[in-house]
């Protein structure tokens, strides 16, 4: 077996590979840019080599720099992770020339299947059903418009060398095709060093289901079930699960056998994924093949018990697969939620900064449940603007889908992240969505269910009462502590009463608390009561409670006369008042937010790429105002209504912080 491997990547996937290599007794080498000198993967590896400035096109995707690191350390093999150089045939060829093993497929398979244009042509030649599209090279934006009209809107504009949602746009008309072509081309060049674009028909209401394949160099190939990846936003996967709640065994077998046949047709070795779109009648169409490890591979590992990274290393070393198709058994259900550094309340725009608090749920394996968190960050670490915004992948496993969802709900509520915007509230909201619970999902789920973006969650009446009961019991505990402060005057003991008013989500609950050493019974004015038990103490940011025998996890923050409480996607200010305080609070005027309707504010820290208007110009609703780049993604900011530009405060090349004023309107 290899003695030392280099991981040509960063973040959580580098950490993930290091864990398996360590388990196999293999030494590891990390590479890092200036931005990653204190990164977790650098700390975890046995050795680390600096390879350049923060931008990936000056460090992580510069083949010569990676090859230098290999020579310096004497690494015998390289695992590329995903993204960066993972599907670059020139890199695989450079490794082969140097006599270093590539822990992935041969260069020929990468060229054949990693390139989306070539893979479509090969799939068509092999008789695989594919989506209509234009597989040739596209000259310019007007050529893209012509092709789009020939195919028929809507169309998907894609980077040929793309992945992870980068370089992808959906266009519904000529203007969007022009804009989408240029943005996709720019993103592709910056992210992959390859700006080739192709266009295909966008199939509405599809499911995105992919098959995991594993092939060795001895002619053996198997598939390890499927992954449902339909919960996507901007073509980037957000939640994955395995197996799919939609497939039956016959369709699973047909898709699996076709995926393996396609892989073997190009002499594929290592782990790979064949992606399909599946319509409502379970007809499936080849979409693309990813010649690498997928981000969402943990859910397959959880339902099969197969360590895919270990298998990739063994195949690269020349070993035969240790299992045949008949040995693959799908057991239980697994969920994966991607934690992104993006603000769901600002239309999911990227968020950067320092993680002032990062406390993931404890990874554990217990009877009937597994919690796993693949991450590449740590508390106090910085989320950089230079790389992908994903910072962790939270996974749960249970015997059934509903149990796996419930495990995920509790795990998400337990996950503490502060200092940056993040999508934990949104992930919790999806877990509670009736359509998701039913498995009634398509790739349009987020667009259809959250058409105006995510504005938070209002708890259902029953859940709100549980939170109110918990907050009342917790506040009583805090009040008792406050009565015990030292240095008080003699004969002036403060009594904590039984009667309280809880105000949350615009509702008032009058409650009475009867406490005992084991907990408290909180009785509402209508006679409804809840039994609350917990070991929470004031000052703790996470409260684990039991309400009538059911678990409840709350993130707890300080607030005047109460708490800031976050749970199940909701972010609540919960006030707990004595009867007299409640009377006075009801008389207080409401504080209104400042009027920013005549300002264009920078929605996230980023770089101004282009200003599309000038002072004095009249703009129409939906018109592009400027383009801001952050985390390798270009974001076009548009006018919300008709207005006249009165002042422009930024220029191309400026780096702006969140909420800085870009322009003003009359």
Question: Helicity range of the residues?
Answer: 25-40%
Give unreliable regions as ranges: none
What structural category characterises the helix and strand content?
A: alpha+beta
Looking at how many chains there are and whether they match, the oligomeric state comes to single chain
* Main beta-sheet strand count, sense and barrel state: 9 strands, antiparallel
Total count of strands = 40
N- to C-terminal distance: 69 Å
What's the gyration radius in Å? 27 Å
Average the pLDDT over all residues and give the rounded result: 93
Shape estimate: globular
Beta-strand fraction estimate: 25-35%
The side-by-side strand order for the widest beta sheet comes to 14-13-10-11-12-15-23-21-20
Number of helices: 17
Strand and helix layout:
Blueprint: E1 4-7, H1 11-23, E2 27-33, H2 40-44, E3 47-52, H3 63-73, E4 77-79, H4 89-98, E5 101-102, H5 107-114, H6 116-125, E6 133-134, H7 141-151, E7 155-163, E8 166-171, H8 174-192, E9 197-201, E10 207-215, E11 221-233, E12 236-242, H9 249-265, E13 270-278, E14 284-290, H10 297-304, H11 308-316, E15 333-340, E16 342-343, E17 349-350, E18 353-354, E19 357-359, E20 364-366, E21 369-375, E22 382-383, E23 390-398, H12 401-414, E24 416-418, H13 424-431, H14 434-438, H15 445-449, H16 461-483, E25 499-504, E26 507-516, E27 519-524, E28 529-534, E29 542-547, E30 550-559, E31 562-567, E32 570-577, H17 579-585, E33 599-601, E34 606-611, E35 618-619, E36 624-630, E37 633-638, E38 643-648, E39 655-656, E40 661-665
Parallel strand pairs: 1-2, 1-4, 2-3, 4-5
Antiparallel strand pairs: 6-9, 7-8, 7-9, 10-11, 10-13, 11-12, 12-15, 13-14, 15-23, 16-17, 18-22, 19-24, 20-21, 21-23, 25-26, 25-32, 26-27, 27-28, 28-29, 29-30, 30-31, 31-32, 33-40, 34-36, 34-39, 35-38, 36-37, 38-40
């Amino acid at each position: 077996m290899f003695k030392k491997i280099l991981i040509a990547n960063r973040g959580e996937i580098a950490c993930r590979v290091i864990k398996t290599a360590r388990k196999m007794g293999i030494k590891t080498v990390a590479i890092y840019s200036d931005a990653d000198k204190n990164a977790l993967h650098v700390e975890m590896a046995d050795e680390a080599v600096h390879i350049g400035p923060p931008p990936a096109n000056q460090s992580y995707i510069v083949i010569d720099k990676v090859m230098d690191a290999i020579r310096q350390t004497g690494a015998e093999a390289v695992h590329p992770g995903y993204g960066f150089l993972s599907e670059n045939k020139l890199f695989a060829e450079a490794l082969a020339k140097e006599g270093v093993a590539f822990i992935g497929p041969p260069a020929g398979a990468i060229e054949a299947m990693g390139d989306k244009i070539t893979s479509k042509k090969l799939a068509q030649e092999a008789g695989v059903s594919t989506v209509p599209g234009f597989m040739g090279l596209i000259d310019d934006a007007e050529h893209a418009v012509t092709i789009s009209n020939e195919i028929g809107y809507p169309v998907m504009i894609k980077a040929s060398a793309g992945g992870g949602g980068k370089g992808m746009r959906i266009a519904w008309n000529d203007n969007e095709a022009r804009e989408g072509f240029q943005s996709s081309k720019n993103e592709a060049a910056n992210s992959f060093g390859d700006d080739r674009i192709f266009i295909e028909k966008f199939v509405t209401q599809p499911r995105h289901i992919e098959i995991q394949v594993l092939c060795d160099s001895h002619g053996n190939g198997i598939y390890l079930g499927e992954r449902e990846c339909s919960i996507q936003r901007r073509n980037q996967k957000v939640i994955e699960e395995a197996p799919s709640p939609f497939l039956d065994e016959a369709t699973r077998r047909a898709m699996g056998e076709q995926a393996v046949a396609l892989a073997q047709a190009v002499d594929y070795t290592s782990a790979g994924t064949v992606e399909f779109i599946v319509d409502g009648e379970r007809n499936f169409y080849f979409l693309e093949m990813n010649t690498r490890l997928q981000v969402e591979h943990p859910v397959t590992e959880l339902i099969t018990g197969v360590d895919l990274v270990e298998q990739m290393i063994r195949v690269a070393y020349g070993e035969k697969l240790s299992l045949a198709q008949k040995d693959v058994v799908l057991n239980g259900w697994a969920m994966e939620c991607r934690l992104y550094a993006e603000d769901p309340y600002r239309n999911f725009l990227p968020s950067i900064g320092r993680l002032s608090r990062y406390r993931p749920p404890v990874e554990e394996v217990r009877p009937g449940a597994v919690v796993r968190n693949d991450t590449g960050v740590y508390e106090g670490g910085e989320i950089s603007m230079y790389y992908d915004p994903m910072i962790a992948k939270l996974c749960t496993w249970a015997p059934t889908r509903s149990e796996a969802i419930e495990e995920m709900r509790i795990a998400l509520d337990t996950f503490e992240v502060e200092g940056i915007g993040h999508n934990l509230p949104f992930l919790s909201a999806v877990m509670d969505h009736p359509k998701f619970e039913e498995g009634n999902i398509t790739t349009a789920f987020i667009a259809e269910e959250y058409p105006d973006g995510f504005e938070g969650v209002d708890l259902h009446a029953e859940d709100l009462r549980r939170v109110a009961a918990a907050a009342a019991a917790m506040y009583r505990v805090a009040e008792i502590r406050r009565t015990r402060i030292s240095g008080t005057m003699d004969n002036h003991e403060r009594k904590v009463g039984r009667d309280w008013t809880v105000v949350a989500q615009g509702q008032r609950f009058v409650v009475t608390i009867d406490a005992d050493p084991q907990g408290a019974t909180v009785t509402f004015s209508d006679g409804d009561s809840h039994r609350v038990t917990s070991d929470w103490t004031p000052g703790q940011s996470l409260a684990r409670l039991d309400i009538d025998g059911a678990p409840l996890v709350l993130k707890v923050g300080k607030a005047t006369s109460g708490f800031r409480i976050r749970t199940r996607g909701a972010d609540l200010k919960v006030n707990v008042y004595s009867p007299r305080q409640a009377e006075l609070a009801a008389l207080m005027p409401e504080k209104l937010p400042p009027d920013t309707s005549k300002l264009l504010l920078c929605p996230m820290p980023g770089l101004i790429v282009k200003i599309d208007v000038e002072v004095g110009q009249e703009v129409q609703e939906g018109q592009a105002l400027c383009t801001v780049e952050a985390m390798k993604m270009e974001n076009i900011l548009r006018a919300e209504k008709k207005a006249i530009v009165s002042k422009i405060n930024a220029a191309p090349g400026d780096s702006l912080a969140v909420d800085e004023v870009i322009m003003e309107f009359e």
